[in-house]
């Protein structure tokens, strides 16, 4: 695919204004003229992505060991690194990549996309059902070390919280498994809405559910194209590095941004 930026000059040419729309997303929530010169309003609500922001999947070796045991196989014969390589190679196949398009708009679509992927992994031949069940299992996901403290602190500050996630299952169960269900008041889950980020509906729904102005809301995530799309709805966005963190994720920075 052609990179749009490679086709556009540095913004100083005579046609820069006519091409500026290439870099602009349509505003889902227009800013009133009276507010154009006003300072940014304070943040009164926070929305979080789920996977790799608040929670992450257990390490590959632990996940595969659970798959092997569920399938009645001896984990002693498992080489997690080799299986992980097979998964990565399969994930780069053109037809597998194509199958992932809009996979989180329903559980059926997610299952089909995952089956298209895992069917290309030799080590998972004949055990797809067990592997897929472990991907969705509540026990396969755990919160980062700073997830609970930050969510609890937001609750203590009376800052309402929502989760905005491209996901195919009910993450309310994941929050409840760690006693965090009372810290989140709104959910915008792609499989329930039938659309994925950066569709404006994904961000505007939790704002409406929380009764907050999108311009007074912060979206926290780790995916620039997906989570960053919240800016088109007037939200501010804080992006975490896309890295395989295991302990502290860096969520305390969210509290610093609130300025309270």
Topology:
Elements: H1 16-19, E1 45-48, E2 55-57, H2 60-70, H3 80-91, H4 94-99, H5 107-118, H6 128-136, E3 141-143, H7 147-156, E4 161-165, H8 172-177, E5 186-189, H9 190-193, H10 200-210, E6 217-221, H11 224-227, E7 236-239, H12 252-258
Parallel strand pairs: 1-4, 1-6, 4-5, 6-7
Antiparallel strand pairs: 2-3
Question: How many separate structural domains?
Answer: 2
Task: Note the beta-strand portion.
Answer: 5-15%
CATH class of the largest domain: Alpha Beta
Q: What does the main sheet amount to?
A: 5 strands, parallel
Low-confidence stretches: 1-25
The structure class reads alpha/beta
CATH architecture of the largest domain: 3-Layer(aba) Sandwich
List keywords for this structure.
disordered N terminus; elongated; Rossmann fold; 11% strand; 5-stranded parallel beta sheet; alpha/beta; two-stranded antiparallel sheet; single chain; 260 residues
What does this structure look like?
With 260 residues, the protein is of the alpha/beta class. It has 2 domains: 35-54 and 144-258, Rossmann fold, CATH 3.40.50.1000; 57-140. It is built from 12 helices and 7 strands. The protein has helices spanning 16-19, 60-70, 80-91, 94-99, 107-118, 128-136, 147-156, 172-177, 190-193, 200-210, 224-227, 252-258; strands at 45-48, 55-57, 141-143, 161-165, 186-189, 217-221, 236-239. The strands form 2 sheets. It has a 5-stranded parallel sheet with strand order 5-4-1-6-7. Strand 4 (161-165), helix 8 (172-177) and strand 5 form a beta-alpha-beta unit. The longest helix has 12 residues, at 80-91. Mean pLDDT is 89; it is low at 1-25.
């Amino acid at each position: 695919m052609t990179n749009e930026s490679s086709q556009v000059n540095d913004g100083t040419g005579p046609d820069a204004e006519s091409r500026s729309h290439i870099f602009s997303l349509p505003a889902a929530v227009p800013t009133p003229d009276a507010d154009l010169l006003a300072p940014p309003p304070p943040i009164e609500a926070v929305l979080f992505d789920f996977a790799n922001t608040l929670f992450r999947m257990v390490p590959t070796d632990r996940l595969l060991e659970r798959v092997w045991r569920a399938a009645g196989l001896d984990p002693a014969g498992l080489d997690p690194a080799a299986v992980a390589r097979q998964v990565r190679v399969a994930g780069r196949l053109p037809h597998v990549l194509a199958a992932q398009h809009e996979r989180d708009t329903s559980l059926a679509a997610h299952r089909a996309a995952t089956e298209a992927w895992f069917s290309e992994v030799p080590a998972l031949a004949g055990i797809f059902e067990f592997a897929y069940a472990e991907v969705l299992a509540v026990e396969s996901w755990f919160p980062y070390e700073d997830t609970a403290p930050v969510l609890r602190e937001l609750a203590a500050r009376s800052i309402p919280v929502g989760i905005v996630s491209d996901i195919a299952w009910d993450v309310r169960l994941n929050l409840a498994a760690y006693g965090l269900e009372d810290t989140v008041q709104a959910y915008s889950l792609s499989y329930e809405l039938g659309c994925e980020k950066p569709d404006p509906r994904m961000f505007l729904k939790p704002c409406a559910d929380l009764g907050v102005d999108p311009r007074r809301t912060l979206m926290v995530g780790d995916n620039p194209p997906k989570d960053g799309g919240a800016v088109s709805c007037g939200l501010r966005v804080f992006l975490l590095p896309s890295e395989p963190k295991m302990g502290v994720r860096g969520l305390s920075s969210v509290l610093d941004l609130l300025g309270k």
